[in-house]
């Protein structure tokens, strides 16, 4: 690696695909042309060869260890992103079940998931934060789950709105709890035993785009119908240990390195959560300090540790904020095109210095323009 | 790149994921930590940012130029591999059409495609090479396509059996011709206007695993039903220029570099085909020279330029062939677990020296053991 290449790097607040640990990128770079002992790039290896099988097994073992996942659960590496999960979940667990699926709607991704679920069966949106423009998540008294529901679905962190469940929503014991954890996966410890299924596309906290991790309780694997398109049937992937067809080998390889980095360099998910809280606090503190200038979107107790969303008093100030930040090496801060404003994503791999640099810039900008 | 890393590389005859051009790997390595001008690794870039959009547009432009694809066709970059195409094709073009789909069955991949299509509607296997253990492809007199068929489907190169269509099968004008070109895509020029849809997972000739290129005639985009899972509807991807959801950014980036290599370094697909024919001839010539010792699987006029498949007189000789080849830096020659024998894959990026080294080894081995 050349010094130039390192120093060119900016602080990248992209919402996803997003920042990756530099040490992981360096390892990938070193091994890119020839993986030690393999005689070829990892991209050139058969997925059924010993070397790649070990890579995938190691990635799975690291994720199992980080989250404390028991053998009651299968861990799958799939393609198609969260968007395909929006369909696979109801196709496997709702279609022809005679039951209804219950959804908590707290943002843009939940809305898309509901749209796909409705194609497969009866869907009840038992909570919606639409009225308050998706600035909050529910408490347990805000909704009621049917005892015989097919499942209860929620999105643990809505990247576009920047709202996050601080813990799992209440759910009857016999109803499988399903979470889209795409944007906070591996950012904090979880009690996996609470879930029926939890999934995440990798490109926020866990790796590059192109691989989606699905953790599914094994009893749910029996539910999908054999007439489903084969790729959509969880059972096929579980029975073949994610080798039902060729898995996305390179994204899985990088994901495995990120999981190893979380284990060895960070010290596990509790340590990661503590760092993430600290980084988010740097940003929210400056938003609160300049309340009225920075208009935070989420209710304080629902704020995301991953994506801080806020607006500025005018479109002109917003444009100059983005432009000046960019000049200072603080990139990709524009909010999602559907909501505007600013979105600062401070995922696992965003170093504390990045969050600190942005917070200082925000403080200065508010003082100058407030 | 260190000299060590280069010299460690072996000749990799893997059937896929498979060998990539060294110059492409070197470029990827150089840019891995920081894409020039982007301030971040290509893996860290938002798919909706200017830099990545240009990468994807350039990849598409190169593929369009190499194959001469007119604007009558959409070029899509999808996930899920060929396996998901096995379902997407009949889900979009057969389901509820009142028509039947016609399949030419010449090997293992065609068989899987038929299995998925039967879930979606009426399927006629109008030709099967099963009786001769899939050693051939049909001539136009071997089958008859219904005039009102939903489509005619074939797999242009069956990797496991090593049989390849030398040109497109005859097909009535009004029936869309559909090809699984996964293992010979970009290995030779094609007349795209003959096709309704042609697709290929990238991990043979075109890039790493995790991206599938689908070239679809635009009139066929109207056919899928809105009730399909959103990811499965070609129209969604075409209307959003492969950004209906986050595309597999890194695999697309590498695919674009391979397409550029084919254009600039190789000189286009006619030149590539000529090199591929030459490489394959080296292997088939030695098989024919030692006929009786090497037992070629495919009929001579159906031999694949991509995958040479053959057996040896005994399991012992087979095992020592694989072991000795490996000692000589000739790797991944074992045939697919379903058929045994030897499979030597000599895709685009396999250098002539690799094919020559294998041919020499085969000649020596036959002389010593024949």
Automatic annotation (TrEMBL), chains A, B:
Query: GO cellular component terms?
Result: cytoplasm
Which key words tag this protein in UniProt?
A: Amino-acid biosynthesis, Aminotransferase, Cytoplasm, Pyridoxal phosphate, Pyridoxine biosynthesis, Serine biosynthesis, Transferase
* Biological process (GO), any one: pyridoxine biosynthetic process
Transferase recorded as keyword: yes
Task: Identify one Pfam family in the record.
Answer: Aminotran_5
Q: Which GO terms describe its molecular function?
A: O-phospho-L-serine:2-oxoglutarate aminotransferase activity; pyridoxal phosphate binding
Q: What HAMAP family does the database record attribute to this sequence?
A: SerC_aminotrans_5
Q: What is this protein called?
A: Phosphoserine aminotransferase
Q: Which organism is it from?
A: Rubripirellula tenax
């Amino acid at each position: 690696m050349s010094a130039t290449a390192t120093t060119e790097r900016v602080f990248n607040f992209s919402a996803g695909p997003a920042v990756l640990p530099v040490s992981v990128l360096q390892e990938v770079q070193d091994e890119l042309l020839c993986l030690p002992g393999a005689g070829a790039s990892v991209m050139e290896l058969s997925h059924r060869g010993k070397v790649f099988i070990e890579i995938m097994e190691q990635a799975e073992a690291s994720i199992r260890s980080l989250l404390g996942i028991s053998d009651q659960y299968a861990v799958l590496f799939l393609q198609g992103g969260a968007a395909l999960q929006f369909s696979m979940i109801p196709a496997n667990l709702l279609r022809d079940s005679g039951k209804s699926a219950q959804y908590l709607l707290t943002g843009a991704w939940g809305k898309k998931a509901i749209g796909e679920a409705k194609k497969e069966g009866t869907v009840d949106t038992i909570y919606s934060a639409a009225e308050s423009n998706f600035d909050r998540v529910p408490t347990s008294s805000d909704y009621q789950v049917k005892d015989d529901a097919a499942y209860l679905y929620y999105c643990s962190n809505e990247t576009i709105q920047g709202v996050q469940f601080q813990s799992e929503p209440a759910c009857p014991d016999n109803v499988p709890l399903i979470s889209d954890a795409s944007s906070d996966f591996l950012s904090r410890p979880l009690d996996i035993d609470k879930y029926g299924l939890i999934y995440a596309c990798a490109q926020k906290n866990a790796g590059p785009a192109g691989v989606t991790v699905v953790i599914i309780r094994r009893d749910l694997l029996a539910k999908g119908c054999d007439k489903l398109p084969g790729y959509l049937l969880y059972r096929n992937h579980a029975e073949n240990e994610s080798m039902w067809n060729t898995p996305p080998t390179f994204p899985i390889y990088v994901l495995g390195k990120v999981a190893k980095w979380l284990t060895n360099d960070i010290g596990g998910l509790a340590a990661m959560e503590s760092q993430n809280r600290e980084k988010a606090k740097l940003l929210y503190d400056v938003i609160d300090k300049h309340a009225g200038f920075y208009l935070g979107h989420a209710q304080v107790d629902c704020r995301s540790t991953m994506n801080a969303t806020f607006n500025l008093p005018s479109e002109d100030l917003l444009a100059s904020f983005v432009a000046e930040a960019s000049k200072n090496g603080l990139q990709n801060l524009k909010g999602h095109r559907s909501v505007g404003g600013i979105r600062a994503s401070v995922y696992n791999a965003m170093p504390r210095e990045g969050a600190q640099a942005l917070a200082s810039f925000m403080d200065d900008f508010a003082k100058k323009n407030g």
